[in-house]
Write a structure and sequence with these properties.
27% of the residues lie in helices and 25% in strands. The protein has nine helices and 17 strands. Helix 2 packs across helix 8. The chain starts with a strand and ends in a 10-residue tail after the last strand. By secondary structure, the chain is an alpha/beta fold. Strands 3, 4, 5, 8, 9, 16 and 17 form a seven-stranded mixed β-sheet that branches. The protein has helices at residues 41-49, 140-160, 177-189, 200-208, 223-230, 246-254, 277-282, 295-305, 324-333; strands at residues 2-5, 16-19, 29-39, 67-73, 85-88, 91-92, 110-111, 123-127, 131-133, 168-172, 192-197, 214-217, 236-241, 256-264, 286-289, 315-320, 339-343. Strand 11 (192-197), helix 4 (200-208) and strand 12 form a beta-alpha-beta unit.
Length: 353
């Protein structure tokens, strides 16, 4: 099969389009013909640079969230059939995982595309219990971005922040993949949503496309003041942040209400921020980190998307698999809104290096 190989850590041009052996599904596994996989910051760019905490042995095939069709079945697999349209839950069961609480695995996560070869390839094998059928109404690109972000959004808000109906939610980076899903997961719970973004057109998109109730441009407006105005002085009961920008983090924390909860699942802009401890303890506030989600969150996400009421995160561009280096370069530049995907089908006739 054809695949993008990471032979060494470095710049985008280290990626190689090569021919490798097609995997064979073992007992309890399925073989998936990949249609799409996304290119993100943390599990793709930072991993390729060699800066992610977990480093797979090289050479390696990345790709955390592939979707496609089942092309083969290992022995003992009875819950899937060849031709099923499926997506992958990116956290894998560990030896101490508790069913229904996979995101709180006492051991550190085992992640598709890090602890095993991922979806930057024409085919990959996966444990059958990591694979979910995708609704017929969803295209493969839509299923990729929904499975990558909506389960995490739901887990952050429902399980971690314990968001309740009629509470106020402030979503930072509101038109990004996770942000746009946080808006919609919060609305499904019945919360009131304030979308925060760094440009007026993105604020408008968050309201008009993804369903936020209010919007704030955190580059041109004073975010805590605007949140207090919108909420009649109450503040946000929950703030979601996966940016990690030092200034925006402080603005988000300053927007929290008493007993407020900040939930985070990313640090795209940096790893270190300042925290006002006095405000934290006097406000009886909490900061909760959780990069994963439970298998039930993936099931919920696909069910929620099956009736057409979920708008998938915006897809900026789909590259053929063999142009993965160009896709990585674009993601590093950050001057766009939306997701970047790879499509191995488009590279079927492309010669390898």
């Amino acid at each position: 099969m054809k695949a993008i190989i990471l032979p060494e850590y470095g710049a985008p041009d280290v990626l190689r389009f090569e021919e490798v052996e097609t995997p064979v599904p073992k007992q309890g596994e399925v073989l998936i013909k990949v249609h799409n996989v996304s290119v993100g910051t943390t599990l793709d760019i930072i991993l390729r640079q060699g800066n992610y905490p977990m480093k797979p042995p090289l050479p390696h095939i990345m790709g955390t969230d592939p979707v496609g069709e089942i092309a083969g079945l290992g022995e003992g697999v009875t819950n899937h059939k060849i031709g099923d349209r499926v997506g992958v839950h990116y956290l894998m069961y560990g030896k101490n995982s508790i069913q229904g609480e996979e995101a709180d695995d006492p051991d550190f996560y085992r992640v598709v595309g890090i602890h095993c070869w991922g979806g930057y390839a024409e085919y990959l094998t996966m444990p059958a219990n990591n694979v979910f059928k995708i609704p017929d109404k969803l295209s493969y690109p839509e299923a990729t971005v929904i499975l990558r972000h909506l389960p995490t959004a739901r887990h952050l808000l429902s399980s971690k922040a314990q968001l309740r109906e009629d509470e106020w939610v402030l979503v930072m980076g509101a038109t990004g993949g996770l942000g746009s899903c946080c808006i919609q997961a919060a609305k499904k719970i019945g919360a009131k949503v304030i979308a925060a973004a760094g440009a007026d057109d993105r604020v408008s998109m968050a309201i008009e496309t993804f369903g936020a109730d209010y919007g704030v441009n955190y580059r041109s407006q004073n975010l805590p003041e605007e949140v207090k105005k919108i909420t009649d002085g109450h503040g946000a009961d929950v703030v979601t942040d996966n940016i990690g920008d030092p200034e925006l983090w402080q603005a988000g924390m300053a927007s929290l209400a008493s007993m407020g909860r900040m939930v985070t699942a990313g640090a795209h802009a940096g790893n270190e921020v300042k925290i006002n401890l006095r405000s934290l303890y006097l406000g009886r506030q909490r900061i909760i980190g959780s990069p994963g989600c439970n298998f039930s969150d993936s099931e919920w996400a696909l069910q929620a998307a099956s009736d057409g009421t979920i708008v998938p995160p915006h897809i900026h561009k789909i590259f053929p698999l063999h142009e993965a280096s160009a896709a990585h370069e674009l993601v590093e530049q950050r001057g766009f809104a939306g997701k970047i995907l790879l499509d191995p089908i488009q590279s079927a006739d492309e010669p390898t290096s």
